[in-house]
Amino acid sequence: MRVAALFPAAGLGLRLGPGTPKAFRTLAGHSLLQHAVRAVCADDRVDRVMVAVPEGNVAETAADLSQLVRVPVSVVAGGVLRQDSVANLLAALDPSVSHVLVHDAARPFVPVSVVGRVLDALAEGQIAVIPVLPVVDTVKEVTGGRDSGERVVATLDRSVLRAVQTPQGFSLEVLVRAFAQLPPGLAATDESSLVERIGVPVVAVAGDQLAFKVTTPFDLAVADSVAVQPDAFAAPPPESSAAGLASPTTVGGDSP
Ligand code: C5P
């Protein structure tokens, strides 16, 4: 396996409020992007790092990250949508790469155990792997706009729902094929949904609360606390039960 870790980090982070693009906000003296790159590279099966950032940040990011990790780093300009940024990363990939991890720069504290579970599943022959967590809230489907008032259509069975994290792992061939068949105008929130669209089975492994995404000012405040003592929040190893998701569980696709 030759593994490239791809980091879409070109979002402006508008939900965080005005200021520096999200990936460059700092926690405990390091940017979200620096934390995220270091966290994923803690698994030494990662052979190279590729990052998509806003156009104006390309040169400084390349210089900065090259000093941070032991593997080669390439930096490209991102695009308008997240999938445009990932497409730019795929276009710049060295063809010797066999597998990719796609990790949100906005998830700075993903534990190496999560990266390891995704890579283990790929090494065992899976071609699309996502880390997930059980959903703790009751989830409703609604109709109508927020302004006009929403009405509840249904209460979903949360025992079969999962919240999806990153890094998501793919064989390069599968992810390239999914992007080649992307219909114009579809805005995806993750890569596994694109792979599901082309009928590829996606398997789930256990995620971790520490892999939370920084989206709102509240998340940034939580991340500030975690940055000071991440080990205090480390989860125990998952059980090998279905709820623990220690072993891969198929969540989509046509065939095993
Ligand atoms: O906006 P959201 O938090 O869902 O973004 C997830 C990740 O995708 C972030 O790391 C963000 O920087 C990245 N992104 C990107 N290019 C965009 C939009 C988002 O690389 N155009």
Please name the defining characteristics of this protein.
256 residues, alpha/beta, Spore Coat Polysaccharide Biosynthesis Protein SpsA, Chain A, two-stranded antiparallel ribbon, 7 helices, 26% helix, globular, binds cytidine-5'-monophosphate
Number of helices: 7
Average pLDDT, to the nearest integer?
Answer: 91
The helix content, as a percent range, equals 25-40%
Number of strands: 13
Kindly identify the CATH topology. Answer: Spore Coat Polysaccharide Biosynthesis Protein SpsA, Chain A
The CATH fourth-level homologous superfamily: Spore Coat Polysaccharide Biosynthesis Protein SpsA, Chain A
CATH class reads Alpha Beta
Radius of gyration: 18 Å
Query: Domains counted in the coordinates: how many?
Result: 1
**C-alpha end-to-end distance:** 21 Å
Low-confidence stretches: 240-244
Largest sheet: 9 strands, mixed
Structural class: alpha/beta
Order of helices and strands: EEEHEHEHEHEEEEEHHEHE
How much strand?
15-25%
Bound molecules: cytidine-5'-monophosphate
Specify the CATH architecture.
Answer: Alpha-Beta Complex
What is the global morphology?
globular
